[in-house]
Design goal:
Pathway: Protein modification; peptidyl-diphthamide biosynthesis. This protein is an alpha+beta fold. The chain is built from 1 helix and 2 strands. It has a single domain, classed as putative n-type atp pyrophosphatase, domain 2.
């Protein structure tokens, strides 16, 4: 679903569709190795640099809890 948007961003700004070079990062909240999943109840998006071409933001968890897997 995101591929067309990522390809457009690649064409406009030269970002790497795979995220190489630090264009975006991930956070893992659940995976088969986890005994419980992490649930973010509240978070804040912090903008470190509001540059028009290379905006840098990160997610600051405020409240989270562990939840049993179903």
């Amino acid at each position: 679903q995101m591929l067309p948007l990522l390809e457009e961003l690649n064409h406009k700004f030269g970002i790497n569709v795979c995220g190489e070079g630090g264009e975006y990062e991930t956070i893992t909240l659940d995976c088969p190795l986890f005994r419980k999943k992490i649930v973010l109840d509240d978070f804040e998006v912090i903008t470190h640099s509001d540059d028009a071409i290379a905006k840098v933001s990160y997610l600051k968890p405020i409240k989270l809890h562990l939840e049993d897997k179903k």
